[in-house]
Write a structure and sequence with these properties.
Blueprint: H1 8-64, H2 68-76, E1 84-90, E2 96-99, H3 107-110, E3 120-124, E4 128-136, E5 144-150, H4 151-202, H5 212-216, H6 221-235
Antiparallel strand pairs: 1-2, 1-5, 3-4, 4-5
Helix pairs in contact: 1-2, 1-4, 4-6
């Protein structure tokens, strides 16, 4: 396997290209992850609020009839929705009318404010991290419905959503690095030709210089520099000494 050798003149340039590719890839990935995470989190929260409102609306008649078995059956069906981990209903006094916790209600939720219907983040021991949304029943007179979303599910969805994008960015980065190496070496090749030609001139081996015609025939700066070397080598060639010691 041939190792690509980069001339010292272009090493800093190549390092700058790598750093630029790395910065673009990293910043794009961070922006993508943050955007997707924010979007999915808002979507899950909106859906959970809709579910909580649906339970609150459907539980009014059930609460009026004090049919707690029907209330339990109502909330049990919602925990089967992906991302919804638990549902519980508390009345205006803080008593739990129905819940989906097994085997029992976590201490943190037992000690929470029953009148608080704002969105909160909870870390429940042995269960994980959750975002809890709430909706009042009959403007809070009959209590409130609380729905907990598993943030682990949200993180998994974020990983799935950005997986292909990050994979594409990685491919672009690798292709960009290989292309940069090839282009830098392509640009450095004339410098190598000029160097070889200059060494040959210095040794008096112009006829044996490897890329003589190719270098002298170039129309760019490398060709101009090679012709300049040739001009100086011919105009500054020392005279051959004569037998009497005069030049």
């Amino acid at each position: 396997m041939q190792v690509i050798k980069v001339r010292k003149l272009f090493q800093r340039t190549l390092f700058g290209v790598f750093a630029l590719f790395g910065f673009i890839g990293l910043s794009t990935s961070i922006l993508l992850i943050d955007t997707v995470n924010s979007y999915l989190s808002e979507e899950y929260e909106t859906n959970s609020l809709g579910i909580a409102q649906s339970i609150a609306d459907a539980s009014v008649d059930i609460l009026l009839n004090r049919d707690l078995a029907a209330l339990q059956s109502l909330i049990d069906q919602f925990v089967e929705i992906q991302g919804i981990n638990y549902v519980y209903i508390r009345d205006q006094t803080g008593d739990f009318l129905a819940h989906t916790f097994v085997p029992g209600i976590p201490e943190q939720i037992l000690n929470s404010d029953p009148a608080d219907t704002t969105t909160v983040e909870r870390q429940l021991a042995g269960m994980g991290e959750f975002v809890e949304v709430s909706r009042p029943i009959l403007a809070g007179v009959a209590g409130a419905v609380h729905v907990g979303m598993d943030t682990g599910i949200i993180a998994l969805q974020v990983q799935r959503a950005i997986g292909r994008q990050v994979y594409l960015i990685s491919i672009v980065f690798v292709v960009g690095v290989v292309a940069a190496l090839w282009l830098v070496n392509l640009a450095a090749r004339p410098i190598g030709d000029v160097l070889t030609y200059a060494v040959a001139l210095a040794r008096g081996e112009e006829a044996q210089a490897a890329p003589v015609e190719r270098v002298l025939g170039r129309k760019d700066e490398a060709g101009q520099l090679a012709r300049l070397f040739l001009h100086f080598s011919r105009t500054h060639t020392p005279s051959t000494p004569t037998g009497d010691g005069t030049a």
